[in-house]
Backbone:
């Protein structure tokens, strides 16, 4: 059994931010930190005071985390980035909103004395003597202190205050992991109410010392314990009165905390087996649990439920069967062909999740080169005459500006080239499309053709496939490549318009060039020859795509299973320092790394392009190391140079690490390994919320059939699937109730309560 915590984060937009540049604007981006560890950096939105990001993240983290903070920064090319403000949400505040925090939050000023991090190792004792008692405080070491100096470190010392007396440790130069091993004693009177204050500071020769954090200990409680030793989390200095803040703007956020207690796999087996049996029986099954779940799930929860069910069945090898069942259910209640898969049904949401989980690498292979070319060219493209701005495109020659007609013709040529390249890449991609995706589209194609036979519906099976492949997968990725990890940054206004027009053209091709699509935007007419040609190419591609037999599907899956799929790949810069002393030179070498569950390898040339920010690499490394039985509890973040470690200055090369191994904060990615127990727990939680409605439905069906009530005693096995589901929910609730309840596991820290 394990405690799991996750944060669903959506950074929507900012408004009324202050201008930080001389142009009267800013270049804002966001940094997200969990307990001072940076985990997310959004794209920079250039030259605006009201940026829109719309970026979503799923973060898995330790249940003992304290707070998540959102920093809004202004990017500067020549100097250090400016801090605009921050929003901090504590764990307690998030836990108080089970449905999550959603709305606008005012940015607060960032006070350096509140920006602390790290922990300090203390030993505290009450020493009783014949004459008087002494309070002995041993300052042993600290770790992960905030770097305050330009060299990326600090010069820390500790100041200990009690009962009007102050004592200080020595200064450790250039270290965020100092070791002091110094002891201080204070006279202690029995019943004394004053607290012991231990402060960490960064020593500066010229300017004032920088505050690094403090620990305040209630001495009265130390009397009972007599002696305590542990790691204390450094706290900010909140004794100063906050200055009147100016208007720093606001940030719109959606943040939801989920705490789950995941039971052993055996506890979920009855639920998993019951749902799998329903999928295997299909529409011929007696219970129809899947339709009931869809009927009772609200629209706002449908995407999460669809994703959880899809991942569960994907892990059981039943994703294709699950989606096939949903296709049949959707077709069974659809009478008008033109409304097929147009709603936000469980089938539509599950298929969207399926393509992102199983087809993202395929999407990168097809779309990646086209998207990169659009970004590199940065051409002005516009087809709508009412939006053409000739001044934006400059001159076509040395003497005259381009006319509106020339701009429209040049734009049409550019879009035809991009659309043609995309369709050609798609036509060549049949063999690279994952076998399970091809087999799922085959089932969709067959089911639609069976439901709507006849010449008048000849194109409908093709449109059903393109409604997911083009309209719900390719087109959104073209319009927002950053959100599909195709680019590291959002597009500027000019590139965004090109991508939008290209996505519209892809949608027209996906709609098989229907008259209704053409009538909406007549100014897209210059692309019609390419669109008509693209329709023929797309139909030929789909015909080949769905032409996959069971044996070929199994062979492709078997060949794929023999390869360790990359968890992360892309370029990293390796820093190499030459020489010693102030005149040493530095160089950076760019290598392309590939991380799988088995190895970390690199080459001089890239095999593919991907998003490769440092926090995503760290997240990927943590995921593949999660089951490593030899994972160290601590490590040295520096190097052993000369005769000592650069981080903590210890001279023993075999010395234990001075920092703890952080392995608990990871970002969810599309290629994450499946966590079957977690998905089963999330489905159980959802069904638990529907239990009253399911029980009412069962009573209604039982009354009509003259059946008995739901058994709840041990050993009883009802034949009715709905009754079985209710029994499984009852058993899981009992298992949770009997599991060891308690607070989340704490990180190594002090056993004493802190004075606040």
Residues:
């Amino acid at each position: 059994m394990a405690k799991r915590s996750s944060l669903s984060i959506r950074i929507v937009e900012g408004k009324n931010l202050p201008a930080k540049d001389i142009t009267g604007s800013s270049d804002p981006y966001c940094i997200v930190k969990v307990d001072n560890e940076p985990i997310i950096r959004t794209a920079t939105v250039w030259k605006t005071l009201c940026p829109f990001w719309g970026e979503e993240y799923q973060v898995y983290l330790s249940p003992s985390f304290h707070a998540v903070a959102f920093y809004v920064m202004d990017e500067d090319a020549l100097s250090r980035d400016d801090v605009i403000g921050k929003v901090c949400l504590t764990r307690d505040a998030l836990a108080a909103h089970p449905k999550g925090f959603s709305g606008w939050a005012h940015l607060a000023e960032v006070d350096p004395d509140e920006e602390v991090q790290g922990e300090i190792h203390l030993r505290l004792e009450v020493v009783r003597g014949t004459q008087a008692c002494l309070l002995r405080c041993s300052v042993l070491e600290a770790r992960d202190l905030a770097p305050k100096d330009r060299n990326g470190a600090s010069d820390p010392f500790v100041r200990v205050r009690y009962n009007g007396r102050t004592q200080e440790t020595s200064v450790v130069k250039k270290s965020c992991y100092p070791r002091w091993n110094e002891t201080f004693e204070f006279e202690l009177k029995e019943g004394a109410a004053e607290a012991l204050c231990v402060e960490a500071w960064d020593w500066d020769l010229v300017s004032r010392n920088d505050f690094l954090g403090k620990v305040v200990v209630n001495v009265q409680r130390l009397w009972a314990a007599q002696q305590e030793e542990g790691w204390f989390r450094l706290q900010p200095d909140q004794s100063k009165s906050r200055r009147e803040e100016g208007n720093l703007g606001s940030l719109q956020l959606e943040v939801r905390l989920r705490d789950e207690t995941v039971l052993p796999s055996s506890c979920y087996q009855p639920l998993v087996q019951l749902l799998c049996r329903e999928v295997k029986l299909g529409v011929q099954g007696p219970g129809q649990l899947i339709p009931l779940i869809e009927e009772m799930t609200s629209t706002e929860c449908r995407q999460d439920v669809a994703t959880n069910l899809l991942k569960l069945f994907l892990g059981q090898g039943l994703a294709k069967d699950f989606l096939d069942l949903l296709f049949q259910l959707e077709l069974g209640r659809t009478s008008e062909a033109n409304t097929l898969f147009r709603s936000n049904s469980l089938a539509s949401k599950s298929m969207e999740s399926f393509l992102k989980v199983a087809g993202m690498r395929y999407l990168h292979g097809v779309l990646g080169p086209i998207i990169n070319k659009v970004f590199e060219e940065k051409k002005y493209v516009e087809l709508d005459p009412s939006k053409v701005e000739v001044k934006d495109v400059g001159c076509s020659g040395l003497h005259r500006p381009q006319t509106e007609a020339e701009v429209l013709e040049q734009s049409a040529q550019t879009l035809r080239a991009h659309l043609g390249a995309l369709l050609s890449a798609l036509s060549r991609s049949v063999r690279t499309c994952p076998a399970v995706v091809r087999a799922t589209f085959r089932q969709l194609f067959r089911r639609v053709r069976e439901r709507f036979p006849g010449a008048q519906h000849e194109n409908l099976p093709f449109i059903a496939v393109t409604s997911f492949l083009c309209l719900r997968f390719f087109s959104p990725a073209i319009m927002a490549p950053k959100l599909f990890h195709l680019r590291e940054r959002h597009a500027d206004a000019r590139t965004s318009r090109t991508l939008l027009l290209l996505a519209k053209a892809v949608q027209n091709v996906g709609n098989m060039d229907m008259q209704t699509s053409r009538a909406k935007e007549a100014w897209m007419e210059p692309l019609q020859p390419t669109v008509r040609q693209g329709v023929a190419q797309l139909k030929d591609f789909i015909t080949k795509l769905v032409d996959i037999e069971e044996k070929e599907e199994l062979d492709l899956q078997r060949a794929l299973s023999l390869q360790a799929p990359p968890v992360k790949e892309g370029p990293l810069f390796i820093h190499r320092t030459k020489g010693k002393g102030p005149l040493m030179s530095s160089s950076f070498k760019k290598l392309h790394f590939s991380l799988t569950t088995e190895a970390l390898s690199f080459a001089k040339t890239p095999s593919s392009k991907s998003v490769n920010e440092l926090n995503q690499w760290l997240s990927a490394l943590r995921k593949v190391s999660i089951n490593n039985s030899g994972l160290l509890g601590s490590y040295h973040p520096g190097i052993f140079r000369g005769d000592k470690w650069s981080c903590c200055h210890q001279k023993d090369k075999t010395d234990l690490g001075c920092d703890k191994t952080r392995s608990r904060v990871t970002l969810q990615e599309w290629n994450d390994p499946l966590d079957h127990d977690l998905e089963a727990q999330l489905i159980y939680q959802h069904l638990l919320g529907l239990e009253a409605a399911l029980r009412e439905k069962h009573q209604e069906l039982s009354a009509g059939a003259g059946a008995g009530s739901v058994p709840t005693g041990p050993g009883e096995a009802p034949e009715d699937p709905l009754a079985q589901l209710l029994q499984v929910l009852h058993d899981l609730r009992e298992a949770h109730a009997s599991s060891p309840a308690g607070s989340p596991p704490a990180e190594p820290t002090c056993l004493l309560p802190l004075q606040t």
In short: Residues 346-377 form the longest helix (32 residues).
